[in-house]
Design a protein that fits this description.
5-stranded antiparallel beta sheet; alpha+beta; 13 strands
């Protein structure tokens, strides 16, 4: 059974928190934590609503203190008593001992997650896909609007603009489906196949994690129940990946992309014909 009460936690102004934990005092201020081993402490002095931690210093040296203001006055005395009892049980150090040398401070900030650099090839591919995905639709929207104005029929813009927006949306869907189908067919042939392990709770849709040759982890999302799945990633850009699907699934995605492009082409044709009549 313990013979002394536990030291209270002193919470002071400015969010400062002073604790007695095992063989050390810890003082937190903002996003920093200072650890003061008991061997480095000379005494804890209560002073009304303040507590001062005095460190051991060599004879003749200037005292080093850590002070916490605005704490509960009733807790300060108990804190000083319990810490004093723990200090009394420690052996007396050498007179030249400098307690400040044992004090350490660490930051409590969480370091930001390093961003994976995007390769030049990936940037070029992204630019090409963006042009491929939005270029025809935007060109149709702008071109037909200009033609209606040139023909002196600005009222038709009320029809041209909504139709152009629909064309852009179908164009974007066509490009996205084409990119997906291209990855599903090409990456298994030219990429690197690895196993990805599920890291999210089990269900139909989940997050899977795989590691590239440099040791960097990447995430891949897929509707699957398995604990592990095969994925293929680009050899030059490991963050670009796709799951390994059976042939019939790849054919269906490719046919879906062709259908979307057919609808997009029809919308562009109708818009151009209406603007040039």
């Amino acid at each position: 059974m313990p013979t002394t009460p536990s030291a209270p936690v002193l919470r002071g102004s400015g969010g400062a928190v002073l604790r007695h934990e095992n063989d050390a005092l810890t003082l937190r201020r903002g996003d920093e934590e200072t650890r003061i081993p008991l061997r480095a402490v000379w005494d804890v002095v209560p002073d009304g609503r303040a507590a001062t931690v005095e460190l051991r210093v060599p004879a003749g040296a200037t005292p080093v203190v850590h002070r916490v203001e605005g704490v509960n006055e009733a807790s300060v005395g108990l804190f000083a008593t319990t810490v004093g009892a723990a200090l009394a049980a420690l052996p007396e150090p050498d007179p030249s001992f400098d307690g400040a040398a044992l004090v350490t401070t660490r930051s409590l900030r969480t370091p930001p997650t390093p961003r994976t650099p995007v390769s030049t090839g990936a940037q070029v591919r992204a630019g090409i896909w963006l042009l491929f995905t939005l270029g025809p639709g935007l060109a149709t929207l702008i071109g037909t609007s200009v033609l209606f104005i040139m023909h002196g029929e600005p009222g038709f813009l009320l029809l041209a603009i909504p139709m152009g927006i629909v064309t852009v949306l179908f164009n974007a869907a066509s490009g996205a489906a084409t990119e997906r189908a291209t990855k599903m067919w090409l990456l298994p042939r030219r990429g690197i196949t690895v196993m990805a392990v599920r890291t999210s709770p089990y269900g139909k849709s989940g997050e899977y994690t795989y590691t590239d040759q440099s040791g960097t982890s990447h995430s891949y999302y897929r509707d699957a129940y398995a604990s592990e799945i095969e994925i293929c990633h680009h050899p030059d850009d490991p963050a670009e990946s796709v799951g390994v699907y059976p042939v019939y699934m790849r054919v269906l995605v490719a046919l879906g992309a062709l259908l979307l492009w057919a609808v997009t082409a029809c919308l562009i044709f109708v818009a151009v014909m209406a603007a040039t009549e």
